[in-house]
Amino acid sequence: MMTRINQLPTLRVDPTKKVVFDYKGKDYVGAHGDTVATALYYNDVRIFGRSLKYHRPRGLYSLDGECSNTCMEIDGIPNVRTENTLVKQGMKVKEQNVKGSAENDMMGFIDKLDFMMPAGFYYKTMHKPASIWPVAMKQIRKAAGLGVLSPDFEMPGKFDQIFPSADVVVIGGGPAGMSAALASADKGLRVIIMESRPWLGGFFDYRTFDYRDENYKNNKQLYSRARELASKVESHANIRVFTHTSVVGTYTNNLVTGFQIGKDNDKFTERYIEIRANAVVVATGCIERPLIFENNERPGVMQVGCVHRLARTYGILAGERAVFSVGHDLGLEAAIDLFDLGMKILCVADVREDGQNPHLMIELAKRNIPYLKGWVAAEAKGGKRVKGVVMTTLDGTISRDFDCDLIVASAGFTPLNGPLTLAHAKLRYDSHTNFFVADKMPEKTHAAGRMLGLEDSLSIEASGVIAGLKAALDCKLMKESYGNSDVDALKSEIDATVAKQKELPGPARGSKFVTAPVKGRKSFICFDEDTTIKNIRQAIEMGFDVPELIKRFTSAGTGPGQGGIPGHNLPLYVAKYLAASGAPPKPTTVRAPLVPTLIATYAGSKHIMMKRTPMDDMQRADGGVFRKIGVWERARYFSDDFSCKKEIENVRNNVGMLDGSTLGKFRIHGPDALKVLQRVYVSDMSKVKLGRVKYSAMCNDDGCVIDDGVVIKLAENDYYFTTSTARAGATIEWLRYHTRFDGWDFYVVNLTDSMGVINLSGPNARKVLQKITSEDVSNSAFAFSGYKEFMVKDTIPVKAMRLGFVGELSYEFHVPSSYMVSLWNMLKDAGKEFNIQNFGVEAQNVLRMEKCHIILGQESEQRTNLLDLGLGFLWDRTKKDAKTVGAVALRQAENDPTRFRLVGFEMENNGRAARDGALIVDDKVRGYVCTARDSFTLNKAVGMALVESHLAKVGTRLEIFEDECGGERIYGTVVPMPFYDPDGTRMKS
Amino acid sequence: MSLTITCPICGKRNGYEFRFGGEDKGPRPDEDSLTPQRWCEYVHLNECVAGVQKEWWVHKDGCGSWFTIHRDTVMNVEVAKPEADR
Amino acid sequence: MVEIKRYSPVAFKVSPKRVEVRDNWTVVLEYDGEGQGANYLVDLSHITRFDVQSSNLDAIKPFGVTIPQGLCESNLQDGLLINRMNGIQASIFCLSGKKPEMPSESSYTETTEVGMCMAIFGKNVFSITEKLTSLDFMDPAKKTPFLYQGPMSHIPCQIITLSRDGEKCGIIFTASRGYGKDMTHAIMDAGAEFGVKPAGEDKFKSWLGSL
């Protein structure tokens, strides 16, 4: 265990609060506030895992999770980024992709075999002959890859989502982001600030040493300035702070998505956040651009920020003897600060020829830290961890060895442009900052801070203020509610702030791309995918010249960290290698999610929203087997006999009750109501009579049937109509769509959920009904296709229809949903002596099939028109003025011999029913089976099929092909429809 | 996902509250002397503009009204009515 | 003999403490353990609602109350909540709990049974709703009461914000009746971290009275 520096004012850990966790079966102790990575490092763990391909040892590198080096398995969840995960009491941590241990990985020898694996070797070597691949694949999968997930893995934890509202979203909680948030919020706007670390402060948070101190009143140090800003932000009524929240996506129209990691007291493990803002400020800052040299990812090689933050934020000195090889002032600052904290700095090499801050040079000199200008690290020494380094001049002519346990290496900075590019900003390479900068910003989006190349702290804050004010202006210009009165004042405030910022230092000159003068066989450009610069060179030599394609071919930047490590170096390296072409560096494409995100987080609280009928509880109690059918949960069966023999026979012989509440139900009224019906229904709806039920259908513009149902006239221009269950949601939309140019005066009310529907069917149905009403329900008083309204027990209003979908004497009662259970119970009570039973959707399906009544979607598909189904009799050809939807197409299809026909068939030789969807074939596909069942009523297997018209004649033999039939065909014969009660006596008497 | 649409009743909302109703092609043609060709074109032929087009949307999860907007099909964003159409 | 009863699509997992039978509904006036000052969810599915549609909506004064002129504006007066849904349509909620006589004009349709209806009120209401919808209840451009027609937990709803004022914050919403069970679950689940509790009609009435 290391010693922690406990007294730093910048600390974000509380060493007095111990956190005990388990690493490989042993207890380790970290401090409250530690990440898993820092806690392990504190416990002397240096090798966190092994790399994907070469099984090279990997350790702490950036501390912000930009690469897979420190991905581990935590509490059974693989590939957790330990640098971004706070350590918790009792956590179980394991290394991954090792055979043995990370310290002694038996697969480590692969590192020596890299010569066998040039760029693209998977593509080139593993496919000739083709039979090699399955074998090779197994071996590769065993050896390569990171975490392992078992197929029955269930994600622990609670995941949910929020959709907060905001005017301005600020991405990044550093000095620029905080300044922007305050500027916008002070203008009365609602601001959300998102910061990926668990605290606000960003780039200022860990810095005490600053040569710019004199810029602040009272010589404030940067970290205390950060805390001052943070407390202002956190206490501002208009600002909502999301810390430990990574932004994963930004989109047009200022949509920002991200996820928050739950803190100790939060009720969630992770929470997906989606914000639609009016303006966005991106102040994501920079990460470091890795320095490329031999073994540049050896445990013990770290970036400047990593070492500096380990010390300042976590109180851990990463090593005892350090060599610095850097390309920017922050490297010098870190060396000075770490020296003061007790680290031995053997030397600081700087790739820059000039441009160093003179204050820092003086401070280095004061401390007698050797400074090597124009030098760079060439090779890290040591097998499993750094034992030394070879330093060299840039041209490679002079070199020097150092014994050290830490190499602090950083070539320069890389702006975190992801949120800008995802929102379609166009990037251009800026030769002053050596950054990719946004040329054209997305609408109402503003960048601020270090990502613009600013290094001066006051300038960074000013840029935040400007971005915040501009975002405020965007909001005020688009939202009347904020009043336009102060827009002019705001504009001049922006101008004044911009003018003031101009007096401060502008974007700093960035360091040029430099690589050590080495061959690059073990110089890694991408750690996740084990891609070396040698691989990149190989790809270029094979003819790839665009970074995007080289990325694909070498897989550099396709790992969990995406562009974090290679994102900047790859285009720079390619441009340098192809310098002759003169093309500027081109960035590779960035895609969401910007940081690895758990699928569970996207799934959120995963509520499944289903509709239930008023009968739901009772039908479940009655043994209903429920299925999700469209938006509804419906009772499909009432026993585990899915052929529904008993349910069917009871309807045919006694009486049954079905819950049909899912039917679409509507009222349409108003002066033009009839016109609307004439437009959408194929029949002449002016002929609908009071007290009668009219069955009709709706077609689409191709004449294809989309819906069928009944229409009842309540009064002049006042109708009640039903639609199929599936169409209920889209019916009003359909009516309005097809009348949108007409300006008709009509009103529709969706009553689907307000009415429960009881279908009472069977030869005893009338006897049951008569018992609960004094209404005359005799066949003459309430005949087939009749409609009646009556009250049951003077209380329950019922709309009753005499229908016959299942082919028996049958009533449909539409009753207010709240009363449905009561009416159902009355019928059930009344029907007891007739053995009344439930029947479900499947029984109904068989019953109506025997009667050859169609169900749209079963006896039809998208291309099936009214005539194909034999429903042409519904169509009234005379109402041309109504411009009935589908009529034109029907007229055109009327004499088309190529259309399918709906036919009934029975299976040959008492065979079983063909499966729904089986194909009708000869040497070609000639149709398909819509519904077929073994009919208990008819004692044979029957069904309906859509077939080519030449097969539609009664007596035609149908050859039926079923999936996985192994070449065996079954046969059916076309027979007349309907199969059951062809003259309708049972239904009508 | 990022598309927003401005409903004339409810204001600017997330795109997924709406359903697309096709390009604006004007009212249904009269049925007299309507050729199959002309009809098919009305129903199925689309301009598929890469740029700004006028199109129908319905606020299915909201007020249920049908209306037209102009949308830049390349960037998939709603845009103001072009000058020419005003 | 089957007893005639009306059932709400919403059921809570707490036992009612006091109930009242009204027009065959068993209206819960108070649930066990309601306490004070929590965030409350009240089932109002029994309250009478109407849909009124007319091309001349301004000429109609349902039960003597004016229909608001502006789109998506609401009017709460004498226990009657009227919401302007669009140019030709308004919804009416009879929050007083009394069932008014159905107006005889054909422009009215009773819609009590079309939807489940609930109220949520308490200081964290909008922290709960933001877990279920992206609708911006705190939009400064809106004045309470106002109507949103939009999705909550993916289901199209009419949501009326009655108050955005601290402890009094609250909304009333309706969604298709069939979603009663799943919607209740979604809200209770989203509200769990804020201690949302089912409450009876009395709690609702005292909240309504406080507005």
Describe this structure in words.
The complex is a heterotrimer of chains A (989), B (86) and C (211). Chain A is an alpha+beta fold and 989 residues long. Chain A contains 24 helices and 49 strands. In chain A, strand 26 (426-430) and strand 27 form a beta hairpin. Chain B has a four-stranded antiparallel sheet, with no helix packed on it. Chain B is globular and about 40 Å long. Helices cover 13% and strands 35% of the residues of chain C. Chain C has helices at 125-129, 180-191, 201-210; strands at residues 16-22, 25-31, 40-43, 49-53, 74-77, 80-84, 89-94, 108-110, 115-121, 146-152, 155-163, 170-176, 197-199. Classes of the chains: A alpha+beta (989), B mainly beta (86), C mainly beta (211). Chains in contact: A-B, A-C, B-C. Chains A and C meet through strand 8, strand 38 and helix 21 of A and helix 2 of C.
Q: How do you describe this structure in short?
A:
With 989 residues, chain A is α+β, with helices and mostly antiparallel strands.
Question: What's the SSE blueprint?
Answer:
The complex is a heterotrimer of chains A (989), B (86) and C (211).
Chain A: E1 14-23, E2 26-32, H1 36-42, E3 49-50, E4 57-58, E5 71-74, E6 77-81, E7 92-94, H2 121-125, H3 132-143, E8 159-162, E9 168-171, H4 175-186, E10 191-194, H5 222-235, E11 239-242, E12 245-251, E13 255-261, E14 270-276, E15 279-282, E16 286-289, E17 301-302, H6 304-312, E18 321-326, H7 329-340, E19 344-350, H8 358-366, E20 371-373, E21 375-381, E22 388-393, E23 399-403, E24 406-410, E25 412-415, H9 418-422, E26 426-430, E27 435-440, E28 445-447, H10 457-478, H11 487-502, E29 524-526, E30 531-532, H12 533-541, H13 547-554, H14 569-577, H15 599-603, H16 616-621, E31 625-629, E32 632-637, H17 645-653, E33 656-659, E34 664-669, H18 673-680, E35 694-699, E36 705-715, E37 718-723, H19 731-737, E38 747-750, E39 755-761, H20 765-772, E40 787-792, E41 796-803, E42 810-816, H21 820-831, E43 837-838, H22 841-850, H23 887-893, E44 900-907, E45 919-921, E46 925-935, E47 940-948, E48 957-961, E49 970-975, H24 985-988
Parallel strand pairs in A: 1-7, 8-14, 9-10, 9-15, 10-11, 15-28, 17-24, 18-19, 18-24, 19-20, 33-43
Antiparallel strand pairs in A: 1-2, 3-4, 5-6, 5-7, 12-13, 13-14, 16-25, 21-22, 22-23, 26-27, 29-30, 31-32, 33-39, 34-37, 34-38, 35-36, 36-37, 39-42, 40-41, 41-42, 44-47, 44-49, 45-46, 45-48, 46-47, 48-49
Chain B: E1 4-7, E2 11-14, E3 19-23, H1 36-44, E4 52-58, E5 66-72, E6 77-79
Antiparallel strand pairs in B: 1-2, 3-4, 4-5, 5-6
Chain C: E1 16-22, E2 25-31, E3 40-43, E4 49-53, E5 74-77, E6 80-84, E7 89-94, E8 108-110, E9 115-121, H1 125-129, E10 146-152, E11 155-163, E12 170-176, H2 180-191, E13 197-199, H3 201-210
